[in-house]
Amino acid sequence: MLPVREPDALYPKASAVILGAGVSGLSVAMALLQRRYSVTVLERSTVGGESSWAGGGILSPLLPWDYAEPVSALALRSMAGYADWVASIEAISGRDAEFWRCGMLALGVIDPEQAMAWCAAHGMAAQPGRPQSLQLPSGVPDQDPVWMPEVAQVRNPHLVAALRAAVVQLGGVIREHCPATGVLTQGGRVTAVQSAAETFPADSVVLATGAWSGLGLAGLAATPQIRPIRGQMLLFKLAPGVLETILYRNGLYLIPRRDGHVLVGSTLEDAGFDKSTDDATRQRLHAEAAELLPALAAMQPVRHWAGLRPGSPDNIPVIDRHPDFGNVFVNTGHYRYGVTLAPASAELLVDLMEGRTPVLDPTPYRWQAALERRWADGS
Ligand SMILES: Cc1cc2nc3c(=O)[nH]c(=O)nc-3n(C[C@H](O)[C@H](O)[C@H](O)COP(=O)(O)OP(=O)(O)OC[C@H]3O[C@@H](n4cnc5c(N)ncnc54)[C@H](O)[C@@H]3O)c2cc1C
Predict the structure, then answer these.
(1) Tens digits of per-residue pLDDT, 50-78?
(2) Comparing C-alpha atoms, which of 273, 286, 197 is closest to residue 234?
(3) Per CATH, which fold does 15-56+159-225+314-372 belong to?
(4) Does 358 sit in the ligand 1 pocket, CB within 6 Å?
(5) Ligand 1 pocket residue status of 57, Cβ below 6 Å
């Protein structure tokens, strides 16, 4: 991961204005602050109040062998450094993000041999079957399991709170209820970002506006192919220790928290900027969750919500310089895995901002590559 720049009184502080205070914007903010930039984050609503709050915090693609290589490359780099990244955020902020290497048991894996071959080729720990040592509540089906012991999770709302505190501790300024509306430009560069009431001068600008990246701003083209994809979640409260590993089957997952909460997700709904939930989905998620963990059958969820993922074709984010302006950068479109991909995405973006050769090949995450990708419906 990026080296932290040593204090240097002579080094002039460049200013960066970051649009969007989700995990994508805050992780870039922290990386830039550690490199002595002065950083202002503008947030339309409240910090981390959108997808970064609504998600599950599993730190891996659900069935890692099902994804395109650019997703795997970014995910594996993030996963390898995640514990250290969280530890540094916790050390700066003094807050616990609840990183937990709880492992993930995938059930109903259609081709376990192919899954094992993929894991071996990508250095990901996995074994077919259910290890004897794995403590599971009674009734969890034993159907074509693959056990991935190193898959971890964070409690994403706590991660965002810790990131926010770290950004402030490092001298960053966060402005909530301050939607960016447009930019001022001069000679191929953006000189300032505008909100309804204020102008924020900037040496560089980072767009991390999640599902809203597909809308653009006055004077700044929208990021291609990003659209909101709604996900509904249920929350149950069990006694602590009943479930201590992530369970997955056929698109549905159960994520235990250490205090006994269990999240159940999710849906993939192309419904625009609509965060409503519905009873039919609540009943379906509840019934499917109870098939995996029968103890849930007699319980009622304590909460049901929906969030808007920054959807992108093939789940491949856009991490690049904006094509119209040399000092505008984009970190968005992380779709189902923005919490997982945050550290490696911030690392790649800051490398691009500072003109270093990145560790990962940046080609698949380029703006141009996103222009050429299509959604499954051909759009
Ligand atoms: C149900 C669900 C389950 C998920 N589970 C997981 C999981 O288990 N693991 C995982 O890795 N990922 C998961 N995700 C995906 C993950 O949450 C997202 O990919 C990630 O949070 C995206 O972060 P972001 O910062 O790009 O977007 P957001 O968190 O949405 O942040 C973007 C921010 O930009 C702000 N904004 C928009 N426009 C403007 C503007 N003009 N000016 C200023 N601010 C603006 C918004 O208000 C918002 O706060 C899940 C998502 C959902 C919805």
Answers:
(1) 999 999 999 999 999 999 999 999 999 99
(2) 286
(3) FAD/NAD(P)-binding domain (3.50.50)
(4) no
(5) yes
